[in-house]
Specification:
The protein folds into two domains: 2-219, Aspartate Aminotransferase, domain 2; 222-315, Aspartate Aminotransferase, domain 1 (Alpha-Beta Complex), CATH 3.90.1150.10. It contains nine helices and eleven strands. It has helices at 2-6, 20-30, 51-54, 73-79, 103-113, 204-220, 222-240, 270-279, 301-315; strands at residues 14-17, 38-42, 62-66, 85-91, 116-120, 139-143, 155-159, 246-248, 261-265, 285-287, 290-293. The strands form two sheets. Strands 1-7-6-5-4-2-3 form a seven-stranded mixed β-sheet, with helices on both faces. α7 runs parallel beside α9. The longest helix has 19 residues, at 222-240.
Length: 317
């Protein structure tokens, strides 16, 4: 099912890890960095897609953090590259305001320049269509507990076949081999598949829960899931724009939209507004001084209209 969801060629390309951070760290610490190398990263990334890269400064690696909102985002990222750039790492969708990048354009450019391409997909996988092949993605990681509707403690890690030999293995354990139950083997050669990144006993309960949630998404169909989510986004943008004092802090161009819409109020702090919403039975998230909304496909415009009524009530109390 994850092959279908990610657009990968084979289940051999996919491992199940503990979380997105582990997948990022597999790459950040697994690559054979050389002094003078650099990698490119958008400013404002979630710490999990920032700290492991910054830690590579100990190996003489320069991390170039790029403002993707000052001008054309993809141009800005690509212009930051040079002949010493080893990797571009981006979030498919930004965690705080839902800003979505053109992964296909970035991936094609990376491939043409022999630059590795890493995608933190936690805010897209399960919400909007993903195709690692079309986007020329080398590595992808995404926790199950957000749009994938799964539990915490399990995550998807995609690694392109050609990229697997480039990563040093950070863990050693019985489960990273083909036919792992052969405990008396003399030859302990890690699997050539992404199984090589699954060192120890698997999270069996997490796998069962993730299997159920993936089945739900795929039975519904990712085309329908994506359509409903973007319809929800459009509804929220239009409705929030009509309330005096509110400002949408997400980008509203169609190509930048995702499942996340963030907004702020000119005189009410986000934490204050969030508390009022919580007291009225609405669950949101505070990101900076913005309220972040992220309704999934199973929430329709009836739910969103009810939310807007509650929001107006708590603003004008």
């Amino acid at each position: 099912m994850l092959v279908r969801l990610t657009g990968s060629n084979s289940e051999d390309d996919i491992a199940l890890l503990k979380n997105t951070t582990e997948g990022i760290s597999m790459v950040a610490w697994g690559l054979d960095w050389q002094s003078g190398d650099n990698m490119v990263l958008p400013q404002g990334e979630f710490p999990s897609n920032r700290l492991p890269w910054l830690a590579q400064s100990a190996h003489g690696v320069e991390v170039r953090e790029v403002d993707i909102r000052a001008k054309n985002a993809e141009n800005a990222l690509l212009e930051a590259m040079d002949g010493h750039t080893r990797l571009l790492s981006v979030s498919a969708v930004q965690w705080n305001d839902g800003f979505r990048l053109d992964l296909e354009r970035l991936g094609k450019a990376c491939r043409s320049r022999s630059v590795l391409f890493f995608v933190d997909a936690i805010q897209q996988l399960g919400a909007l269509a993903m195709d690692v092949e079309a986007c020329h993605i080398d590595f992808l990681a995404a926790d199950a507990h957000k749009w994938l509707l799964g539990p915490e403690g399990i995550a998807v890690f995609y690694c392109r076949e050609s990229a697997r030999p480039r990563l040093r293995l950070m863990h050693q354990g019985w489960h990273m081999f083909d036919n792992p139950w052969n405990f008396h083997r003399k030859e302990w050669k890690p699997s050539t598949s992404a199984k090589r990144f699954e060192a120890g006993s698997p999270n069996s309960m997490g796998q069962v829960a993730l299997h159920a949630s993936l089945n739900l998404l795929l039975q519904t169909g990712m085309e329908q899931v994506s359509r409903r989510i973007l319809q929800n986004t459009e509804f929220l943008i239009d409705a929030l724009s009509l309330i005096p004092g509110l400002q949408i802090t997400s980008r509203t161009e169609p190509e930048r939209r995702s499942g996340i819409v963030s907004f702020t109020h000119e005189s009410i702090l986000a934490r204050t507004l969030n508390t009022r919403l919580a007291d009225s039975g609405v669950s949101c998230a505070v990101r900076g001084n913005s309220i972040r909304l992220s309704p999934h496909y199973y929430q329709d415009q009836t739910d969103l209209a009810e939310f807007m009524q509650i929001l107006e009530r708590v603003i004008f109390i």
